[in-house]
Amino acid sequence: MKANQAVHSITTLCRVLEVSESGYHAWRTRLPSKRAVADAGLSKRIRAIHAMSDGTYGVPRIHAELAAEGVHIGRKRVARLMRAAHLEGVSRRRWCVTTTRDERARPAPDLVDRNFAAPGPDHLWVADITYIPTHAGFLYLAVVLDAWSRKVVGWAMAGHLKTELVVQALDMAVGQRQPQSVVHHSDQGTQYTSIGFGLRCKEAGVRPSMGSVGDAYDNAMCESFFATLECELLARRRFTSHAEARMAVFRFIEGWYNPLRRHSALDYESPAGYEKKHRAAA
């Protein structure tokens, strides 16, 4: 009606639309309801959280973020407000990693047997390698995750797939965590079955463990991390150089995934927050 009142009088518009003129004016001057005011404030905060996550958070993580801020509302309300604001999270897709085995090398025994439950930090680490496409060629990322907190405790990047790549990731993990007889579980890739990696594990007091070849379930936790990396960063960016990709991955791991990103398996705590919470309770 407001859009057409320059052409037609309000009285005429109300008669055509079969509404009372007094009712229309009452509706125009009526203050927003408490619910509408609350929804407007929530929508503003939801937009800010969604932007903070670089557009990756969906309903569950935004709901958890609001709860952590002391805002306790239902998930359905969050979903309704996100729909109204045309906001949605990203959906994770399966991330394929190719493993090449050295038939001459003797793999370590499988000490995990697909049981990734750990009683605390630095009891079980999982490790794997993936690739990151750039205009300058592939960049390779090796990671070591703590199975208990899902925290990336070690990682390294290089333009090659030599053994030193996984050794550098292990060295970072050992240097940061100082573990006592931790199990390091990986696939049977040539880097992990190499003599050099085995010797470094022995020096550091790390117990190597290896699953079967080409079976994602034998290293499902790392596969899950790579799927998150792919859908929240790699599928949304194109890198012109190795340096640009390195910086983006650094920011993702150290600036987002470890300290801030809420994980469904951790009751929607971040890896760092989960560790901090349990240290405080100990």
TrEMBL record:
Record-linked Gene3D superfamilies:
Ribonuclease H-like superfamily/Ribonuclease H
Q: Where is the Integrase catalytic domain?
A: 117-279
Query: InterPro entries per the record?
Result: HTH-like_dom, Integrase_cat-core, RNaseH-like_sf, RNaseH_sf, Transpos_IS3, Transposase_IS3/IS150/IS904
One GO term of the biological process aspect: DNA integration
Alphabetical list of Pfam families matching this protein: HTH_21, rve, rve_2
What's an example of a GO molecular-function annotation for this chain?
Answer: nucleic acid binding
PROSITE patterns associated with the record: INTEGRASE
Q: What is this protein called?
A: Transposase orfB, IS3 family
Q: Species name for this entry?
A: Myxococcus xanthus (strain DK1622)
